[in-house]
Amino acid sequence: MGNLSLSWAVVFDWLDEQILKSGNGYVERIEMSDLPTIPFGPKGPLITRIGLGGEGILRTTGHDARARQVIHEAVLQHITYFDTAPAYQESQAYLGSVWAERPQVCDAIFQTSKSPSRTYAQAMSDLTNSLNALHRDHLDLWQIHDLRTWEDIRQMEGPGGALEAFVQAREEGRVRHIGATGHHDPEILKYAVTHWPLDSVLLPANPAETLLGGFLDGVVDEARDREMTVIGMKCLGGGMFVQPENGITADILIRYALNCPVDLIIVGCSTPDQVRELVNAATDTTDALPRFRQLEDAFRPHAPKLTYYRGRV
What we know:
The N terminus is likely disordered. The protein has 13 helices and 10 strands. The chain has one domain: NADP-dependent oxidoreductase domain (TIM Barrel, Alpha-Beta Barrel). It is an alpha/beta fold. It has an 8-stranded parallel β-barrel with strand order 3-4-5-6-7-8-9-10, surrounded by 7 helices.
């Protein structure tokens, strides 16, 4: 793929065209990006340490114009990592509609998707559908979506299981990297990390997870031993963690997640302003360690309930 920064002139030319066509001026040009970047794995391309998540406005139906504004803003702000999944309603179609208008933009971004399927045939079907929806001939990262139970593991590994599809797709070049995601049980995700030939793992990163342990220590430690890229999610708890009246802002939660032992984080956005807030948080270098400790103190009495996505309350 090469250096992602080489394609920004093409991206800006395209964005100028979109502004002229729309006449709404909802984006403003920036001349350079201060976003921190990191290689994806030992030999992968540079990616931004923040990515546009498949939640927010992307996880809707019938909101094409609003979704495209968010995608345009993310591109304009030099975000290169884009997350999506078949389960996220029209997320793939929204992204694909943008990439189809200017295929060259695809050279500047790192496009991911996922498959929740546990069988070879259905996973391969998911991959074909994702590529078609996204108007791409390959994915930069294809992830096994939402591992929860030992039955998931058994099905993935068994005869006709989806793990074979993921490995084969990488060998054939239809995907560049493969990964696994999970937020239900750290032991399940740890098994995948330690037994499967993965390139990445996606797991929750927030103050409650630091306090409870399991994902940000046990799973991350195993991933690091295998040179996997670690991606953080659930940074805002689906927005539930954000309580400005109590001093818990999206900004500090994003900065906290980036300070966790992860390589990058993904955050869903519903407006261009939220995209800019994400970028501002990622580029803020002021000392926040005292605030991080305060966050942990605020989360400590409620950490088990706040990790609602673990499937237990």
